[in-house]
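--- STAGE predict ---
source: upstream dedup step, 1 unique chain passed
mode: sequence only
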Amino acid sequence: MKMRFVAGLLLSSFMLACAIAPAQAKHAPASTAPGRYEDWGPDIDVVEITRTFRSADYERIAIEPLVTDGVGLPASDENTYEPVKNMLGRFTAVFAERLREASAKPVDVVEAAPSAARVLHLRGKVLLLDPGSRAKRYWGGFGAGAVRVEVRCELVDGASGDVLLSFTQQRRSGFGGFGGDYEELMARTIRQVADDTANLLNEF
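--- STAGE serialize ---
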């Protein structure tokens, strides 16, 4: 009898969790009015909206290479030096590839975005590319030694050159087989930021 009661209790708890999860996954509509917002909409750290716009008014997204020269490299004798250097060189390509998959609009990487109607420009810089510690991820767990990626970007109207909004977003990845390969985890985290960018655009 006791075992039956415990089993019933566990089943009830599971069913309640399944019922609550979809509601928790949804977020309240985010404000698209001009202003500065923290913890905005679909899990964006900071958004500063300058001008109201509609994503549907734009046919494609042009990404200028994200500036990476402000990101410090590990010491050249550290095992994270080459992975970080490589990922800084690939950052825009990895970001754009994932945004292309996550967005309903064509996404191009351009050296200098030309002035054009119905084109949304994305430009910005990498603020942080921290490879974390593979050993800490392996032995510590619970987020120890996590990879961290942070960017600050602007969305610009192609015709006028006006900044529509800017956003700052950081993501962390702390799990991987045997602590996770450095480049693999950094690429995964960059793709998460690209997903966040696509989700942001879907709010407008």
